[in-house]
Amino acid sequence: MYIIKNAMKNISRSLGRNILIGIIAFVIAISSTVALSIKQSAISAEEEALKGLVITASISVDRQKLQSEAGTDRELMMELTNSVGILSLEELQKYATSEYVSTFNYTIESSVAENDEFEAYTETEEVVQADPTSNTKIDTNIGVPHTNLGGFSGIGQQGDFTVVGYNDEPGMSDFINGQNKITDGSIFNFTADYTCIISDTLAVYNEIGIGDTITIKNPNLETEIYTLTVSGIYSSTLTSDDVDLKFSAAQDPANQIYTSYNTLSLLAATSSENATVSTNDDGVEVTTALRSTVAGVYSFSNIENYESFKASLTSMGLGEYYSLNSSDLSNYENSLTPIKNLSDFADLFLVLVLGIGGVILVVLNIFNIRERKYEVGVLTAIGMKKFKVALQFMTELFMVTFLAIIFGTIAGAFLSVPIADKLLQNQITAQETTQSQQEENFGRPGMGGGLGGGLGIPVEEDVNYLDSINAATDVSVIAQLMGIGLLLTVISSLGAIVFIVRFEPLKILSNRN
Amino acid sequence: MSILKLENLTYSYDGSKNSILKGISREFEKGSIYAIVGKSGEGKTTTLSLLSGLTSPSEGNIYFDGQNLKNIDKYRYRNTMVGVIFQGYNLLPQLTAEENVVLSLDLTGKKIRNKKEVARKALLSVELDNEKAKRRILKLSGGEQQRVAIARTLCYEPDIILADEPTGNLDNDTGDGIMNIFKKLAREENKCVIIVTHSDKVASFADKVITLKNGLMV
């Protein structure tokens, strides 16, 4: 008890020295608080982001594997490509039975042509109008804003509209994430009742209202006309400017027509039944059937399930040339890059602060002890054990450090939020600049995932970086700071303790006298 | 029975072949004042350091109340059994007179109810009033500091009081006052007071004068 009492007396009576130690500890505490808060917040942000993350993935042809198998042999590449078919809905559903899959949704997509009564919205000269009389082969997968379609089956004409049929509402991600929103009427029925929703642009352009019917044509057979009833009109935040390389009007977001999977698959099936097959001048068989492609999206509740599903696909019968891909996961990982960088920076900063601060405190304490050598001599001469002398000196240091850490933590807690946000913004800017430069280096200034997805070029999709962190100084940070304070006190006292143990009271006092 | 006994005490400084103390044997009793005199360099202060446990003899033994000092914790010996009054007082300047005395009481480890009261009594016994008790050491005169040093040893009532040149820095009157305190301690409180001095006047207060010469006590 008297050790604490004496320590307090000594602190109050040697204010200059203790204020100096306090300032150093205060600076260390502020810096450590900021660094620890950033680190803690980065961990929390990562966990929170992971908690809210619903991973969706789709199975597609592994083009990279095909490429590596074929090497430079073009014919082999074509042969391999032709041998790997697009998975049917039945096959996709088979994998959806896996215990790791939370939900499975699927879509069907077709390209249809306009007619005089219902015209596609066009605004740019880039649009290539479909010519039903021409047999020009257009890879209809190019530039389609919806990726992971896996390519259309067979070669057909590109239309003016893209019709997408959904099996259920949870699969309509554009409506779930708020990109699209019903502004009039209601969503179509998921049964095959030939209802659909169209964009507000298309509705205004063709003076269409709720309950009106629209007629669209099979681009491969202009006499094949489909009639759909408009049950709703939606608006979209996506405009034609957001879509790169518009090869046809069908790629304009305004020309997207949404209906149920049942409706569109029925139209495609009927068209297929009534189709005629002929051979063109190039000797290629051409069918008049409406082309359609089916895609499936698997949802997972966490990364572990996703990884387990990926690992189990081969045993479930998936061929070696298919792979499971998730843009959500890569986006999630990319979105955390600035925060991870910041966290790494915080680690380094913490080590530097503690290292430099620790050395300064050790040196200061050694000087301090040398200065108080006489006191050590007197105390030991009158019967105070050396370890108690050391304990008293440590207590003094701990009290000063503890007080400085309390004030440093308070100041650091206030400073950590603006500092963390500023550093994070710098990280994001640096990351975006690097990304942008890389894109430019590949000759793709400002291009999104559309081209890459279609051409099989690995292009980074736009990443929504986590741009704010709640740099909170919580109990964990305070506990760590207390630990740091204690550690610093012990480390900086070690030198002093060595001196105290080595001091001989008689020598000290003889020299003094 | 003697409270302190020296048995064939020999001491030489580290690395030195010549012993400064050569096989001294002597007994000290309670209720007496002893003056150890001798020329400079004869080993007076060294003897005091040996008796206070601040250093250990090269050969021989020191017995306190029949117990070999080698078997006694030196810190405990110094903070309860023996009181050492250093030539330079060796008080803590950042503390007040009272706090210096209280610190000595703290070191004894004894449960004393009102240490401040005990400290004040000790200070009063060496004629330092409450006002002076509250002063820091550097605000006191040399004589007053010497009294604080004495009070610091008196407060825990040791059996032996060792003093190194206790009047060396003091004027005659103050020195006489200090010596009267020692006389009182020996006579009235049955303490064994051992004073190291080169002053004949101080030696004249002693019951027994021991001269150190050529490493021997004569």
Largest sheet of chain B: 6 strands, mixed
Distance between the termini of chain B: 21 Å
Strand order, sheet with most strands of chain B: 6-7-8-3-9-10
Binned strand content of chain B: 15-25%
Quick one: how many beta strands of chain B?
10
The topology string of helices and strands of chain B comes to EEEHEEHEHHHHEHEHEE
Shape summary of chain B: globular
Shape of chain A: elongated
The low-pLDDT segments of chain A are 125-154, 447-461
Which range does the strand content of chain A fall in? 15-25%
Notable traits:
heterodimer; A: 513 residues; alpha+beta; 10-stranded mixed β-sheet; two-stranded antiparallel sheet; 12 strands; B: 218 residues; alpha/beta; 6-stranded mixed β-sheet; 4-stranded antiparallel β-sheet; 8 helices; 36% helix; 24% strand; globular
Set down the secondary structure blueprint:
The complex is a heterodimer of chains A (513) and B (218).
Chain A: H1 2-13, H2 15-51, E1 55-61, H3 63-70, H4 74-83, H5 89-96, E2 103-112, E3 161-166, H6 173-176, E4 180-185, E5 195-199, H7 200-206, E6 213-218, E7 221-236, E8 256-260, H8 261-274, E9 277-279, E10 285-287, E11 293-300, H9 303-312, E12 322-325, H10 327-335, H11 337-371, H12 373-381, H13 386-441, H14 449-455, H15 475-502, H16 505-512
Parallel strand pairs in A: 3-8, 5-7
Antiparallel strand pairs in A: 1-11, 1-12, 2-3, 2-11, 4-7, 5-8, 6-7, 9-10
Chain B: E1 4-11, E2 21-28, E3 33-38, H1 44-52, E4 59-64, E5 67-68, H2 74-81, E6 82-85, H3 97-108, H4 115-125, H5 130-133, H6 142-154, E7 160-164, H7 172-188, E8 192-196, H8 200-204, E9 208-213, E10 216-217
Parallel strand pairs in B: 3-8, 3-9, 6-7, 7-8
Antiparallel strand pairs in B: 1-2, 1-4, 4-5, 9-10
Helix pairs in contact in B: 3-4, 3-6, 4-6
